[in-house]
């Protein structure tokens, strides 16, 4: 039995935020029925290469794995009736359509509650619906800008141009919050029998994520300093060059810092007046990082890693993104698995990273074609009305 076996989720979300959330729940065994526009499908299908079929892109193979697909045009009465039938038999309805638009389609919370009184109705929004941004569109770039994330790299390298972090990080973090919200509301429903409306605003979710450390001294009232976590914004805190590559080295505690300095032959630095003065100002780590950078080119990655492992110094080699599938640890744990999709052919699947002692690993379902399960789902609904 899977962790979420018997839980049915109707997923009317698109792009990454919503599909990523429901992918995690599908991985746990929930039945996720993905509702898509006829012919076009979800935008996430076209993210990444998908030759020879552009509707089966590489990101779709991940964020929509294990789901079923039905194509519905909700402006057509007969297709809207199909969605109403699905909601009436579901535990969760999750959508990221803007509030006014979903109401016009007849699928706001009150309408869905009338179909299924205990429905968990989850609305993935760009912005909280009680604020002035409520009706604005939100994409990852917009949220990175609005949360101050684009101002972080300029603080580190002195290039004053705001820049995006090169990842769909806001979408994915909001997806994590979305999965958490669904599970919390589901636990509440199983305990009380009560459904509810749940709002998951991308802006607020990502602000909470980024400001956990970066609100910093502006947290207090009155503030005792500016926002921004100095350790993360220190320009000297970068990977260190070695004789044949780069290493990430983390002297995190006073004890590990002292051991590292001794290994580098730099123990005297910690007793120097310059270091003591910098430490009194809370600015001593730049001296440590500069000293590491001066010493690490003397040995290779392998030589340093052997020394650091023997002395309990946190360190890892800097690996190029293209080489990640060759990582020996991920190979040993089976994180990447080659599979053959019935429509796409060979591809690499990432195993869900969390392991549950009560639920052994299992084969995950494949990402569906547009409306790949439409006929079967409609037949099930028809059979239920006979």
Please give the count of helices. 16
Tally of DSSP β-strands: 11
**Major sheet description:** 6 strands, parallel
Determine the fraction of residues in helical runs and give it as a percent range.
25-40%
Structural class: alpha/beta
Question: How would you state the average pLDDT, rounded?
Answer: 95
Shape: elongated
As a percent range, the share of strand residues is 5-15%
- Ends distance: 30 Å
Low-confidence stretches: none
SSE run: EHEHEHEHHEHHHEHHEEHHHHEHEEH
Report Rg.
Answer: 25 Å
What strand line-up does the widest sheet have?
Answer: 3-2-1-4-5-6
Tell me what the structure shows.
This protein is an alpha/beta fold. It is built from 16 helices and eleven strands. A six-stranded parallel sheet has the order 3-2-1-4-5-6, sandwiched between helices. Strands 7-8-9 form a three-stranded antiparallel sheet, covered by helices on one side. A hairpin with a 4-residue loop joins strand 7 and strand 8. Helix 1 crosses helix 8 and helix 8 packs across helix 9.
Mind sketching the topology for me?
Layout: E1 8-12, H1 17-27, E2 31-36, H2 58-63, E3 68-71, H3 77-88, E4 92-95, H4 99-105, H5 109-115, E5 120-125, H6 140-146, H7 152-157, H8 169-192, E6 196-201, H9 202-214, H10 230-233, E7 240-241, E8 246-249, H11 254-263, H12 273-280, H13 285-295, H14 301-310, E9 315-317, H15 328-333, E10 336-341, E11 345-350, H16 374-385
Parallel strand pairs: 1-2, 1-4, 2-3, 4-5, 5-6
Antiparallel strand pairs: 7-8, 8-9, 10-11
Helix pairs in contact: 1-8, 8-9
């Amino acid at each position: 039995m899977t962790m979420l076996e018997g839980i049915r989720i109707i997923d009317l979300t698109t792009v990454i935020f919503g599909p990523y959330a429901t992918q995690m729940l599908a991985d746990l065994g929930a039945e996720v029925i993905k509702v898509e526009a006829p012919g076009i499908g979800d935008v996430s299908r076209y993210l990444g290469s998908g030759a020879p079929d552009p509707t089966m892109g590489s990101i779709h193979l991940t964020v929509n794995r294990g789901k079923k697909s039905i194509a519905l045009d909700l402006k057509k009465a007969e297709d809207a009736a199909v969605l109403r039938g699905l909601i009436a038999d579901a535990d969760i309805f999750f959508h990221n359509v803007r509030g006014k638009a979903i109401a016009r389609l007849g699928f706001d919370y009150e309408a869905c509650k009338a179909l299924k009184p205990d429905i968990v109705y989850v609305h993935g929004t760009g912005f909280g619906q009680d604020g002035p941004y409520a009706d604005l569109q939100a994409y990852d770039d917009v949220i990175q800008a609005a949360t101050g994330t684009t101002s972080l790299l300029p603080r580190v390298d002195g290039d004053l141009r705001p820049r995006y972090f090169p990842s769909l990080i806001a979408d994915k973090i909001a997806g994590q919050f979305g999965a958490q919200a669904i599970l919390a509301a589901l636990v509440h429903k199983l305990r009380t029998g009560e459904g509810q409306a749940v709002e998951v605003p991308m802006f607020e979710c990502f602000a909470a994520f980024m400001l956990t450390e970066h609100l910093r001294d502006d947290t207090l009232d009155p503030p005792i300093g500016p926002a921004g976590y100095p350790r993360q914004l220190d320009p000297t805190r970068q990977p260190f060059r070695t004789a044949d590559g780069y290493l990430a080295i983390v002297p995190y505690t006073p004890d590990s810092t002292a051991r590292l300095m001794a290994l580098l032959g730099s123990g005297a630095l910690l007793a120097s007046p310059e270091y003591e003065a910098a430490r009194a100002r809370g600015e001593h780590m730049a001296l440590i990082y500069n000293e590491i950078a001066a010493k690490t080119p003397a040995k290779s990655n392998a030589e340093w890693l052997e020394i650091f492992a023997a002395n309990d110094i946190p360190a890892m080699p800097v690996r190029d993104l293209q080489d990640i599938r060759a990582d020996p640890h991920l190979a040993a744990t089976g994180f990447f698995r080659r599979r053959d999709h019935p429509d796409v052919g060979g591809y690499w699947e990432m195993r869900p990273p969390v392991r549950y002692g009560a639920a052994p690993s299992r084969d995950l379902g494949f990402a569906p074609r547009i409306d790949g399960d439409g006929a079967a789902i409609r037949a099930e609904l028809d059979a239920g009305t006979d």
